[in-house]
Each structure stands twice: as structure tokens, then as C-alpha cells.
Automatic annotation (TrEMBL):
Transferase as UniProt keyword: yes
Record keywords, A-Z: Transferase
Name of the molecule in the record: Rhodanese-related sulfurtransferase
Organism the protein comes from: Tepidamorphus gemmatus
PROSITE patterns attached to this UniProt entry: RHODANESE_3
């Protein structure tokens, strides 16, 4: 017998959005490159390879985020202990809303996420480092 889901992902995302700061892509582009701001890319490594990266963004796979944030974790990454504003993003904004909520609940401040994620960033013309074509592929 299949399990019954009592709280769907949309409710989880909506609850997260009610707790966190959401910034529009224009604001995010304005923050890009500042020394006191850390962009955190939560997308899967295959997504980065396919679509590119925001220059300077820290790649933090969503499944490792809690472990990388917590200084008591053997997997802690010092970048998450910086005195900075953390801007989370994913492809479209759902994972980053959940990640920003988690980071905030763990005590990180200030945190926010980009409404529309990398897709909105790309559409708005934000800077992107494109992946190198694989050997034998034509550059686009």
C-alpha cells in the first residue's frame, strides 16, 4: 500500500517563503560581486555542467547543505562561517526557498533567496560562466 503524503512540497515551499527574505533578480544582480555577499548555488552538478554558473558562486549540493553549514559537522565548510549575506539560488526557486529557511533556522543571518533562481538570472542577463564544450562538441 503506498504511503499517503500529508504535507506536499508546495505547502513546504509556501511555508518557507513566509519565513524568509525573497529578492528579485535585479536586486541579486546588484549584489553580485560584493565582498560581503556569498551566492550559494544549490543545483545538481549536472545542472551546472549543462547551463553554467554564476561567477564566484559557491556550489553546495542541497543534500549536503546542513552538514556544510554546521561548524560541529565533520563536513563543515568555512565559507558558511563568514560574516556575509548569503544569497541562495537553484534553477527556479523552490529548493533555494527551502535551503534559505533551513539555513535561517540553523542560525545563519542574513540569508535570502532569488525569486525565479538561475532561470530568472539568465533571462535577466546576469553574468554566467558557460561550461566548456566536451571534446568533439561544437561550441554554441
Amino acid at each position: 500500500m503506498p504511503q499517503t503524503i500529508t504535507t506536499g512540497f508546495r505547502k513546504l515551499v509556501d511555508d518557507a517563503l513566509a519565513e524568509i527574505e525573497t529578492i528579485d533578480v535585479e536586486t541579486a544582480i546588484g549584489l553580485h560581486g560584493r565582498d560581503d555577499v556569498v551566492f550559494v548555488d544549490l543545483r545538481d552538478i549536472r545542472e551546472l555542467a549543462r547551463t553554467g554558473r554564476i561567477p564566484g558562486a559557491v556550489h553546495a549540493p542541497r543534500g549536503m547543505l546542513e552538514f556544510w553549514i554546521d561548524p560541529d559537522s565533520p563536513y563543515h565548510k568555512p565559507v558558511f562561517a563568514r560574516d556575509a549575506r548569503f544569497v541562495f539560488f537553484c534553477a527556479g526557486g523552490w529548493r533555494s526557498a527551502l535551503a534559505a529557511q533551513t539555513a535561517q533556522r540553523m542560525g545563519m543571518r542574513p540569508v535570502c533567496h532569488i525569486d525565479g533562481g538561475f532561470g530568472a538570472w539568465e533571462k535577466a542577463g546576469g553574468p554566467i560562466e558557460r561550461p566548456e564544450p566536451a571534446p568533439g562538441e561544437a561550441a554554441s
